[in-house]
């Protein structure tokens, strides 16, 4: 009986979630991990075991509807067709899922979804109070050790999802934080063509316009999970302003995200809670060899070793990036020039010609942290990933404020997964890049940050230059006047050195 109640609660919870937030969750709901659901490609849970009431249609909660996918052509390096189960996501798995009536968009609230939700405020991790910092660290710690209440991960690719011998499906429970890591891994993993034959030129969340919208949603989903976990709907994840131009990882200290272990600097200090964080989804080559997926088992400790003799990005880099008016430009890839996205992602620098060895902003910081952070399939294991990407998102937010009407997010010919209306892999229920390409307050959060100055620098420099010229002029006049007066009064020490030059021509 309690089991049934629990199941109902989960299902109702899911639909309410869908109603309120359009389902800010990913991979598949546990309720849809059954053989029936996979075989029918239908993920429309029934809140009270009444087959007629899929998605809670009777109570006006939702409706079971066909999944819409982007049919526009994609460009880029993935030239294969119909061999990757993430193509036209999520239709290889489900073609029908819950769509909700009267859904509240992200950022709205109230029974009729007509009340603006006060945005949660993302602050600088360095300016959190001791208490706020403790809440953040504890939320992370709980997320690492709590099984995700609604979602499970697929541990085999689509064709292997049902074990015909046991008539069971290959799904696994995973912790809230590890789901966050798994999502990132799944979006960058290779196409599995056969044992030891991975196709690597595919990435649903980097090297294209979706880099920004994908990570935005990824952070939002973690933020919501943490809010639920600690029961505080005002909780917000902080950001790390990495644009210090310095050479130190200032958040790598034990009362923030962990210092280095003195006896093995590539590990986290034993005094940090992150010392014991086992990483998941790290053995990409192993999964490729076995033609399988990351199953969420822990694979060893977190590794991090900030590089010595390294310069982090500067506010000047941020400022230059924010001058770029085009969100992205053809070919919408790592070789796009004058692209805000490509510059922020870090394959291009705003002020120089394209150079493939160049790494800027986001990429540079990952490179700096090295260890687990340097591998994109594994990077999200390090909690620094959260605060690094939050700052990246804050820069995008400032760009959106400056160029609100710019429509340069491509609708087609971006790499697979990166077209504007593509459903982001592996989020479920489906959500497009376009839905995240809006101001953050419309999604229910904002930043306590001032990047407004970044980019005003030319005019700042002009004003400063004018002031300086004026000062010099005044100084010259003063010196000239003094010189004259000195001539009149006969100085005690003869100061020919400067006077000659300024007065000669006069
Ligand atoms: C497998 O299980 C599903 C539902 O659990 C059932 O409908 C189906 O008949 C089963 N198939 C076999 C081969 O046992
Ligand atoms: C997964 O977690 C759910 C809820 O915590 C539990 O009911 C279920 O038995 C777990 N499944 C496995 C395979 O551990
Ligand atoms: C999960 O993956 C790990 C690492 O690839 C592997 O050693 C382990 O056998 C897998 N577990 C299951 C239950 O498949
Ligand atoms: C630091 O980098 C500079 C320039 O790349 C190099 O000349 C110098 O030798 C490096 N110093 C150390 C201690 O590695
Ligand atoms: C960009 O890179 C892709 C893939 O390497 C290549 O096919 C394309 O020609 C390049 N485009 C430009 C403009 O360099
Ligand atoms: C976006 O900015 C670029 C560069 O100024 C401009 O060419 C383009 O027309 C703008 N697009 C829109 C929709 O305003």
Automatic annotation (TrEMBL):
Entry keyword set: Glycoprotein, Isomerase, Melanin biosynthesis, Membrane, Metal-binding, Signal, Transmembrane, Transmembrane helix, Zinc
EC number: 5.3.3.12
Compartment(s): Melanosome membrane
Biological or metabolic pathway of the protein: Pigment biosynthesis; melanin biosynthesis
Keyword DNA-binding: no
EC category name: isomerase
Main location group: membrane
Membrane topology according to the record: Single-pass type I membrane protein
Transmembrane segments: 460-481
Catalytic activity: L-dopachrome = 5,6-dihydroxyindole-2-carboxylate
Xref: InterPro entries: Di-copper_centre_dom_sf, Tyrosinase/Hemocyanin, Tyrosinase_Cu-bd
Highest taxon, organism lineage: Eukaryota
GO biological-process terms attached to the record: developmental pigmentation; melanin biosynthetic process from tyrosine; positive regulation of neuroblast proliferation; ventricular zone neuroblast division
CC annotations in GO: melanosome membrane
A single GO molecular function term of this UniProt record: metal ion binding
Cofactor dependence: Zn(2+)
Sequence ranges assigned to domain Tyrosinase copper-binding in this UniProt record: 206-223, 382-393
Signal peptide interval: 1-26
Known function: Plays a role in melanin biosynthesis. Catalyzes the conversion of L-dopachrome into 5,6-dihydroxyindole-2-carboxylic acid (DHICA).
Family, per entry: Belongs to the tyrosinase family.
The protein's name: L-dopachrome tautomerase
């Amino acid at each position: 009986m309690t089991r049934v109640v629990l199941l109902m609660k989960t299902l109702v919870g899911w639909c309410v979630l869908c109603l309120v937030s359009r389902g800010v969750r990913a991979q598949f709901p546990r309720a849809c991990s059954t053989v029936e659901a996979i075989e029918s490609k239908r993920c429309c849970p029934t809140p009270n075991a009444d087959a007629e009431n899929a998605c809670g249609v009777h109570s006006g909660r939702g409706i079971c509807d066909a999944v819409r996918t982007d049919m526009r052509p994609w460009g880029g390096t993935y030239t294969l067709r119909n061999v990757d189960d993430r193509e036209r996501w999520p239709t290889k798995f489900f073609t029908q899922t819950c769509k909700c009536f009267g859904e509240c968009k992200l950022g709205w609230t109230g029974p009729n979804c007509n009340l603006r939700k006060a945005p949660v405020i993302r602050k600088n991790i360095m300016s959190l109070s001791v208490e706020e910092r403790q809440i953040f660290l504890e939320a992370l710690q709980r997320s690492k050790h709590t099984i995700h209440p609604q979602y499970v991960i697929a541990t085999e690719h689509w064709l292997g999802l049902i074990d015909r011998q046991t008539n069971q499906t290959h799904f696994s429970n995973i912790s809230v934080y590890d789901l966050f890591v798994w999502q990132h891994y799944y979006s960058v993993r290779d196409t599995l063509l056969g044992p030891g034959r991975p196709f690597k030129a595919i990435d649903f969340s980097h090297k294209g316009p979706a880099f920004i919208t994908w990570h935005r949603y990824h952070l939002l989903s973690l933020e919501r999970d943490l809010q639920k976990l600690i029961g505080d709907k005002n909780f917000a994840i902080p950001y790390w302003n990495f644009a210090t131009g310095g050479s130190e990882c200032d958040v790598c200290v034990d009362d923030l995200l962990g210092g280095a272990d003195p006896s093995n600097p590539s590990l986290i200090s034993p005094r940090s809670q992150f010392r014991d964080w086992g990483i998941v989804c790290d053995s990409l080559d192993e999964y490729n060899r076995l033609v399988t997926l990351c199953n969420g088992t822990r694979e060893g400790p977190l590794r991090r070793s900030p590089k010595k003799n390294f310069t982090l990005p500067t506010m000047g880099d941020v400022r230059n990036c924010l001058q770029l008016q085009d969100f992205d430009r053809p070919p919408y890839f790592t070789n796009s020039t004058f692209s805000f996205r490509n510059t922020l992602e870090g394959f291009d620098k705003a002020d120089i010609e394209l150079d493939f060895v160049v790494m800027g902003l986001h990429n540079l910081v990952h490179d700096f942290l090295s260890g687990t952070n340097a591998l994109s399939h594994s990077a999200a294991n390090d909690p620094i990933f959260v605060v690094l990407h939050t700052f990246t998102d804050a820069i995008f937010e400032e760009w959106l404020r400056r160029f609100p009407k710019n429509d340069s997010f491509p609708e087609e010919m971006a790499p697979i997964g990166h077209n504007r209306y593509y459903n982001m892999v592996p989020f479920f229920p489906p959500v497009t890049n376009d839905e995240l390409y809006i101001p953050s307050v419309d999604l229910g959060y904002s930043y306590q940050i001032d990047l407004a100055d970044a980019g005003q620098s030319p005019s700042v420099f002009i004003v400063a230059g004018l002031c300086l010229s004026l000062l010099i002029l005044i100084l010259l006049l003063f010196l000239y006047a003094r010189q004259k007066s000195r001539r009149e009064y006969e100085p005690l020490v003869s100061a020919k050195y400067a006077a000659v030059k300024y007065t000669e021509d006069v």
